[in-house]
Every structure is written in C-alpha cells, then in structure tokens.
C-alpha cells in the first residue's frame, strides 16, 4: 500500500540523485524558478521507504483559493507498473486535500521514435505532412501501457496544435550518447552520425577560430541575455527578462554545481552565439540559445552545440536533448526549419506520452479551461 505526503526539499533532492536521471522540471530548484506558483515536494512511501517523488506547482484560480496542481514532466515514480492506479490515487487524494480542482502531469515515458533518416525522407516526400504519417522506428511498450491506463483511469490528454502540449512539448529531438547495448559512444561516433552540413559547419567554426567557453557564473549572464534579446527581435518572439534567467541560474546552480552552464562562442573577441545547458544525472538538455545576425558564416551556433555535446559525453550522459519540435514535416510550414536544424545532429525524433489532466472538481475545472482558452 502506497501513501503520499509532503517531504523536505533535501529528501526530494536526495531521492532524485539516486535515480539514473529525472527531468530538471522535477527538481526542487525548478519550484524556486517558478516563483509565481506555490510549490510542494511530495514523496511516495511504501511503509517507511521513499519510492517516488514529485515537484508539484499549484496555480491559483483568480479570486478563489482553489488550484490547478501541475507536475511538469513528472512525477518520478515506477511508470513500468501495470497498477498505475496504486500510485495515482494517493496522489490525487493528497492534492484534493490541498485545494486542487484539477491535476495536470506529464508522464516522462516515450511512446514512439523516428530516426533522423526517416524524418529527412518524410520532409522530402510530398505525401508526408506529419510524423504521424511515418511508421515509427520504435514503439515503446511502457509508454503504450501508460497511455492505456491513463485513459481507463479517466485522465484526459492535453494536446495543442502542432503537437505542443499545454505546458511542455510532446515531441522532442534527442541525440543518443550510448549505443543500443548502453555503451558510451565516442565523439567520432557522434560526429559520423551527423549530416555532412553539420560536420562541415563544425569544422568551419574551428578553422575560422571560433572559441567556445563555458561558465556557471551568474555574472556572465548579461552577455547571454543581450544576445538572446537580439535574437528575439530578429526572430519575432517575446524574450524572457534577465531576472528570470538570474533566478534560473541561481536556483539550479545552487542545487548542484554541474546542473546548469552558460556557453559562449566568440570570434575575434565578438560574441556570435550563446546558450544554456542543463544536466540531471545522465540526461543533458539544450535549454536556451541565441545567435548574432552578423558573422553567421563562422557557424558559432554549430560550435556551441558541438561543445555542449562533447561536455555531455565527458559527463557520462546517455542522451543529449535538444528539446521541443512540432510534429510537422510539411516543407511549407514555418516550423519545419526547427526540425531540419536538429535533424542534422543525426539523432531521433521522440514522442512522449504528453500532458494529461484529471478534473477533481468538474465545474471549477471547466471554468479554468474556459479562462485559459480566452487568454
């Protein structure tokens, strides 16, 4: 019999450090980054043994002390179980006692994968418009079982246009850093898996004298942010403020010295590309990136990515995660350029189970749903 109760952040972090990996969105530090939400660390106990953990973020309804309980890319539990109800029932009972009118979570389980070659062929094929039009290279039985169980338990899948879930992306692009047997790949192995353009651009950056450095110091953050704001103006998206990144670097960096790094590519002293990487255990992520409009020919963005991949390999990571993509393979879709850039790394498109909601108070949940759609 499993029970759920609040645990200290120190116990939560210690549990995560015993796992091969977990999403950085499930670390106690991420709750401090999302300061506009109320946060809680929860533990699953079998008798007195801690066997699961979660970061829960509570978002309050306007003018009412009722909350949406959100578990981004979590919880960290035994997803291979055939009795998922035994894990989720005590969770929802606890959340309801905390004033939650609904629960949203993102099970960290893969459902399907497609190779870089498949994606490239799909983009070139006029009959293919989405990843769904391609037979996957792999279907994951654990993921399929989780989806079936959630359906049976009354959870509702949340999917927005293009495969972007309500909170976190359902589709990502990843570069495996271990082979099928789990043995580490070498830098040469990874380079050989990249397409010719990526290999050429990495070599060109080196030939042009692009220098890549890394830092975990918040003092270096403004240089990244200035270039990031420049990138936002060029690519027409709304940038996050400097204070957000300061909180992110402070919170994640204080949790573990290897958790977050800033990366800088400079050519003749001029910053041409910059990025942020995050790692939890054997999972490394490319989180944010920026590049200058000038000197694009020196390929600073490719140099930064390659340096981050090398760093992940040296740290013993099993996967390098370039985060979200849409599911489009339509060459006329403006989003296809994103997947084309990432496909060049020679990795794979990966579909997760996505985000799922469970209404605990149907009237309040419906009101919240309407409110979110009108924003």
TrEMBL record:
UniProt keyword terms in alphabetical order? Acyltransferase, Cell shape, Cell wall biogenesis/degradation, Peptidoglycan synthesis, Transferase
InterPro entries the record matches:
Acyl_CoA_acyltransferase, FEMABX, PG_Glycine_Bridge_Synth
Q: Which PROSITE patterns match?
A: FEMABX (PS51191)
One example of a Gene Ontology biological process annotation = regulation of cell shape
Q: Which Gene3D superfamilies match?
A: 3.40.630.30
Q: Which GO terms describe its molecular function?
A: aminoacyltransferase activity
So what family is this one in? Belongs to the FemABX family.
The identity of this protein, by name, is Vancomycin resistance protein VanK
């Amino acid at each position: 019999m499993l029970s759920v109760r609040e645990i200290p952040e120190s116990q939560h972090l210690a549990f995560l450090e015993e796992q091969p990996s977990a999403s950085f969105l499930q670390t106690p530090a991420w709750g401090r980054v999302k300061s506009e939400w109320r946060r809680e660390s929860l533990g699953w106990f079998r008798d007195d043994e801690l066997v699961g953990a979660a970061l829960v973020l509570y978002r309050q309804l306007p003018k009412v002390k009722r909350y949406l309980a959100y578990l981004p890319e979590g919880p960290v539990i035994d997803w291979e179980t055939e009795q998922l109800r035994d894990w989720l029932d005590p969770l929802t009972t606890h959340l309801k006692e905390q004033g939650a009118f609904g629960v949203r979570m993102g099970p960290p389980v893969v459902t399907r994968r497609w190779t870089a070659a498949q994606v490239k062929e799909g983009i070139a094929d006029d009959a293919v418009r989405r990843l769904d039009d391609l037979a996957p290279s792999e279907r994951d039985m654990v993921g399929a079982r989780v989806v079936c169980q959630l359906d049976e338990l009354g959870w509702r899948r949340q999917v927005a246009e293009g495969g972007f879930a309500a909170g976190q992306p359902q589709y990502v692009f990843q570069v495996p850093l271990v082979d099928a047997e789990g043995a580490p790949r070498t830098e040469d192995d990874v380079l050989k898996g990249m397409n010719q353009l990526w290999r050429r651009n990495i070599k060109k950056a080196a030939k042009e004298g692009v220098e890549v450095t890394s830092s975990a110091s918040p003092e270096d953050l403004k240089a990244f942010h200035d270039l990031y704001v420049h990138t936002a103006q060029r690519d027409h998206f709304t940038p996050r403020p400097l204070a957000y990144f300061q909180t992110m670097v402070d919170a994640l960096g204080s949790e573990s010295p290897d958790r977050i790094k800033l990366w800088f590519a400079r050519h003749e002293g001029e910053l041409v590309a910059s990025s942020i990487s995050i790692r939890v255990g054997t999972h490394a992520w490319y989180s944010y990136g920026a590049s200058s409009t000038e000197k694009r020919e020196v390929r600073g963005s490719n140099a930064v990515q390659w340096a981050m991949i090398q760093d992940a390999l040296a740290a013993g990571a099993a996967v390098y995660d370039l985060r979200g993509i849409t599911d489009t393979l339509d060459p006329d879709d403006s989003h296809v350029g994103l997947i084309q850039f990432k496909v060049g790394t020679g990795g794979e498109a990966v579909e997760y189970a996505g985000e799922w909601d469970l209404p605990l108070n149907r009237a309040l949940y419906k009101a919240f749903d309407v409110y979110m759609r009108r924003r």
